């Protein structure tokens, strides 16, 4: 049976699924199958890191440019919070990884905030000053209290 892993990845995935479905263990492409399963786990961690980076970047923008606050920023904060909570609910084993990912995400969020506000990077703290619980709380908006009519 031809190995499509490098030539046609989609075809390879379908072939592997079919082999698994029919319990044809000895025909599986185990080295590549193992690599792909491990890759799926890394993608979940990467998604968490990316979403936290965007959320933290917007929280920093919210805090450091209060006169520029917009419905768009508010929507981004709310959506990222919901999606992160959903990701953690679907993947509870990511929770021990949170302390590490928050610091990585903070640096990315800091770069995002600096780039989008045109404020120097030195205006933002070097370390995340927000607790994880605050980051995900729908009541936490640095610099002011959250309300449903926050943007009028």
Tell me the major beta sheet.
2 strands, antiparallel
Helical content class: 55-70%
Class based on secondary structure composition and strand pairing: mainly alpha
Q: Kindly estimate the percentage of residues that lie in beta strands according to DSSP.
A: under 5%
What's the count of strands? 2
The residue ranges in which pLDDT falls below 50 over 5 or more consecutive positions are: none
Topology pattern, helix = H, strand = E: HHHHHEE
Number of continuous helical runs: 5
Rg from Cα: 21 Å
Look at the structure and give the mean pLDDT: 91
Kindly, what is the distance between the CA atoms of the first and last residues, rounded to a whole number of angstroms? 63 Å
Strand order of the largest sheet: 1-2
Q: Can you characterise this structure?
A:
The protein has 152 residues and is mainly α. The protein has a domain at 42-145. It has helices at residues 9-21, 30-64, 71-90, 98-117, 132-136, and strands spanning 140-141, 144-145. Helix 2 packs antiparallel against helix 3 (71-90). The longest helix is centred in the first third of the chain and has 35 residues, at 30-64.
């Amino acid at each position: 049976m031809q190995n499509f892993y490098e030539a046609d990845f989609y075809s390879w995935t379908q072939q592997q699924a079919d082999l698994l479905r029919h319990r044809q263990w000895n025909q599986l492409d185990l080295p590549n199958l193992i690599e792909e399963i491990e890759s799926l786990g890394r993608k979940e961690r990467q998604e968490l890191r990316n979403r936290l980076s965007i959320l933290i970047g917007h929280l920093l923008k919210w805090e450091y440019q209060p006169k520029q606050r917009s419905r768009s920023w508010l929507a981004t904060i709310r959506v990222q919070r919901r999606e992160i909570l959903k990701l953690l609910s679907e993947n509870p084993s990511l929770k021990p990884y949170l302390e590490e990912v928050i610091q990585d995400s903070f640096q990315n969020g800091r770069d995002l905030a600096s780039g989008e506000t045109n404020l120097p990077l030195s205006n933002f703290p070097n370390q995340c000053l927000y607790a994880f619980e605050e980051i995900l709380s729908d009541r936490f908006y640095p610099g002011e209290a959250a309300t449903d009519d926050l943007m009028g």
